[in-house]
Write a structure and sequence with these properties.
CATH superfamily of the largest domain: HUPs
Largest sheet: 4 strands, antiparallel
Helix content: 25-40%
Number of strands: 10
Strand content: 15-25%
CATH architecture of the largest domain: 3-Layer(aba) Sandwich
Structural class: alpha/beta
Strand order of the largest sheet: 4-1-6-5
């Protein structure tokens, strides 16, 4: 194709299967319009076994591909999955040549001559409009600073962190590696204080120090982890302290702040961070969720707490 699709998986998880050019036409013809869901049919299993690769898109992942697919897909199951993409054209001579040769092909899914000419007219009009607009100065991309903030959870009296911390640490390390590979300068900020009267940490050592060990185990070097962390006791603390940290330390150099928490906590964290950052004139951070580590009664308790907090917001309170 002469265009590229850039997609983002906003929430939930999506498995994407890719086939090589030798198998793709047969697979499309055999399964066009089918929904792949469990239990898979023998024919679907056979087709998946021919895939060149099967990739898992996590919340926040971005992918580039070509092909004709729905521009937005929503899957409603145990959790919501939303993926959307837009198509971009680059003007490399090979792509432009492929565009101009588009009418040479015939068959199902190929544009009619009239539609193709209409598309070319639209492209020429868009180029002409751009040529008539004065050039806007754009700063060159140098891979700006990114701050990853992993929110706290809990630890026992021996300092052993819970599963939520470990799930978040895996995501933090994954983001750190991918952002570094893309040329960004990345630092990690951890959260969690100490208070014998609060359930999450009865020890004399701040929770963020226990979280630090989990992040180190996942491969993030110590020199990339901020010391000290945030001595926060709850999510409101985390939002306010993070806004102050950014304002004091990296307001002018920070390209992006990404907050990592658990799925059950995303909605409340996003609300509180947006309010706290707006209050000091800072752009809202990106709040990312990872799969909940807990299950059963523990997960139900977490979700009940989040639902209670959301009801509190709807009554007009901003805390």
């Amino acid at each position: 194709a002469w265009w590229s699709n850039v997609a983002k998986n906003f929430t939930g998880y999506k498995l994407v299967a890719l086939w090589g050019p030798g198998d793709a036409p047969e697979i499309v013809e055999r399964h066009e319009g089918e929904l792949f869901r469990r239990p898979l049919s023998p024919e679907q299993m056979q087709s998946l076994s021919k895939a060149a690769i099967i990739a898992l898109l996590e919340p926040g992942d971005v992918a580039s591909f070509s092909g004709g697919l729905p521009h937005a897909t929503v899957v409603v199951g145990p959790e919501l999955n939303l993926t959307a993409y837009e198509s971009l054209v680059n003007w490399h001579p090979a792509n432009a040549g492929l565009l101009l040769r588009g009418l040479a092909r015939r068959g199902k899914g190929v544009m009619t001559r009239g539609a193709m000419h209409g598309l070319l007219d639209d492209i020429v009009d868009a180029l002409w409009q751009q040529c008539c607009v004065s050039r806007v100065h754009v700063q060159p991309f140098h891979g700006g600073d990114v701050l990853l903030l992993q929110l706290g959870s809990s630890n026992d009296d021996r300092g052993n962190v819970d599963g939520e911390v470990r799930q978040r640490a895996v995501k933090t390390a994954s983001l750190w590696r991918s952002l570094r590979a893309a040329g960004h300068r990345v630092s990690v900020l951890l959260s969690g204080g100490k208070d014998p009267d609060r359930f999450f940490n009865h020890t004399e050592i701040s929770h963020w120090r226990y979280v630090r060990e989990a992040v180190l185990e996942c491969g993030v070097p110590a020199e990339h982890i901020a010391d000290p962390g945030l001595e926060a006791l709850h999510t409101v603390d985390e939002a306010l302290m993070a806004a102050e940290y950014v304002r004091r330390n990296c307001k002018n150099s920070l390209q992006s702040l990404q907050v990592i928490t658990s799925d059950f906590h995303v909605a409340r964290a996003r609300h509180l961070f947006h309010v706290a950052f707006a209050a000091v004139g800072l752009p809202a951070p990106l709040v990312l969720g990872v799969p909940d580590a807990c299950e059963g009664e523990a997960l139900r308790a977490h979700r009940a707490k989040e639902a209670s907090s959301r009801a509190f917001w709807l009554r007009g309170f901003r805390v």
